[in-house]
Amino acid sequence: MQHVAIKYDDIVTGFARIDADHKRLLDMINLLCKARSETLRSVLTTQLLTSLLNQLASHFEHEEEFMARLEFGNFDRHLSSHCKIINSMTLLVNQYDASGDLDHIINFMTTEISGHIADEDKQFASFIRQRRAKQK
Ligand SMILES: [Fe+2]
Ligand SMILES: [Fe+2]
User: Fold this and answer.
1) How far is the CA of 60 from the centre of ligand 2 (A)?
2) pTM over 0.85
3) Confidence class for position 42, pLDDT limits 50, 70, 90
4) 14-135 domain in CATH 1.10.150.20?
């Protein structure tokens, strides 16, 4: 697998705070991809996974506050998607502690997390853009 799993340009929503969070998450995911093929493993990888999980939870919390404030119509579905991602990531990180197998985590992040950003987060970004256009 290539080291850079996701390209930042593919997931830009156009909203500075959200994009900055996504960029930080993406940098961490790409670092983990690199860790897979280098001898960074063990303690460093565990720390990185824990930081990534915390960063993800904090980012989701921020997005959810933003959505609730703007009364986003698909809020419940988006919230459910965040919960599923956090639950799956928590499980995978716990499994990593026992197995040391990074492949499942990287596959999950490069499909589910990047997919969420590219699909559902972009729908939210589009909703904000439409709402702002109406206000002008
Ligand atoms: Fe997001
Ligand atoms: Fe989201």
Assistant:
1) 6
2) no
3) low
4) no
